[in-house]
Design a protein that fits this description.
Mean pLDDT: 81
Radius of gyration: 14 Å
Distance between the termini: 19 Å
């Protein structure tokens, strides 16, 4: 993730924590709701794991992911996109 530091306006990398479930098929990424974390989707992911590769993501400032002073939807979307690209380049 690239989070902008309010005081400097500089962009810095922010790591996201994720868990992989399943090893074949198309990839599905799960993002949690307010105050949640990726593991909230574990039971659903296990039910789909025979057919899909699932990524359960802790969004910025949630669960085990990096924390910042502030983050918005655009920064969270960028972080998720960067994570998925890093995990499976070229998809």
């Amino acid at each position: 993730m690239r989070a902008t530091t309010p005081s400097t306006g500089r962009v810095s990398a922010l790591p996201l924590y994720s868990t992989q479930v399943g090893s074949s098929g198309e990839r599905i990424a799960f993002c949690h709701g307010l105050f949640g974390q990726g593991k909230n989707w574990t039971s659903v992911a296990k039910a789909l794991a025979d057919e899909f590769r699932l990524t359960l993501i802790d969004l910025p400032n949630h669960g085990r992911s990096g924390w910042t002073d502030s983050v918005g939807y655009a920064e969270m979307a960028t972080a998720v996109g960067d994570l998925l690209t890093e995990q499976a380049p070229g998809e």
